[in-house]
Amino acid sequence: xxxxxxxxxxxxxxxxxxxxxxxxxxxxxxxxxxxxxxxxxxxxxxxxxxxxxxxxxxxxxxxxxxxxxxxxx
Length: 73
Prior knowledge:
Layout: H1 4-7, H2 12-26, H3 29-38, E1 44-45, E2 48-49, E3 52-53, E4 57-58, H4 59-72
Antiparallel strand pairs: 1-4, 2-3
Helix pairs in contact: 2-3
């Protein structure tokens, strides 16, 4: 039997992000604000091809775009 997150087509990291966001939203106002600040990402990445760096993109925006594309399928 596979895990529910795997059967739903999610990666384990994405599953953890959704679970963390759900827990943060269930907290009281003060604790929620503090935890949301800790949960924000400011990571960037670039794909390299043939020794040349591609466009630098935000990881959060790329993740959101990938989720939206997956939801369309």
